[in-house]
């Protein structure tokens, strides 16, 4: 019998938590990773080489790899701020950039690196071109660039993507649509709603594939609201935004953490973008999704509130068992 196929879509530091826990399970994993990041090291590299940003791909590669910790530390090494043109760049970003140039595309680079680092599963950039994220706010103001969105004071109404270096319609990377259509489960998140998850779904081919797939589309709802993105959002608001952008009630299942984050626990200096715990609106959720699963998915670590990947994956596998 074939393994269940799970495709995880997102970016940032969210989906690596799920991928790391999925790696040890008897499932066929695919990761589809955002290419709209234009800040920090990724932004500098994408602008210099006009390539897809490497940072989110780097984090996913490490999460799905069985490489020894020493190799991981080397790949994640970040040059010191006194290192001139290299200042702040993780070594892994430069390696991905170099191999992308050598192989002719980031897609081919990730296939080579996946073999090199013995990854469990497949990794695809959501598009083979760098994308620019546009946010239109409720007051009509438009902000261009993922890294600039949180700086504008207002509520986001919608987002969309364009190709950064040509006028063509953004298209999905090869194998991406096929992976979505052939999956048994699609997992969205966890991660920044407007800047890590939606940039992938706003590629029309990916949005359409999510509507057509027979897979269970599961959203792992964020634990904390995020400054400049989801301030004052309930869990139902997160799902409403996803369905609105996709043009239909595409989300089948929502995973919601109901374990409280202890008061004063969050380190507001280290995690200053995260504000308060997401409020629950179960009536709103039930109107937006077929199934709502609320449980303790919380992991407290180093002054931050994160998803416990093992607990989330345990629930995902239960959903698959029910479907089969």
TrEMBL record:
Belongs to the gluconeogenesis factor family. Required for morphogenesis under gluconeogenic growth conditions. One of its GO terms (molecular function) is LPPG:FO 2-phospho-L-lactate transferase activity. Its main location: cytoplasm. It is found in: Cytoplasm. GO terms for cellular component: cytoplasm. HAMAP family: Gluconeogen_factor (MF_00973). The gene is yvcK. It holds the Pfam family CofD. It comes from Streptococcus zhangguiae. Keywords: Cytoplasm. One of its GO terms (biological process) is regulation of cell shape. This is Putative gluconeogenesis factor. It comes from the Bacteria.
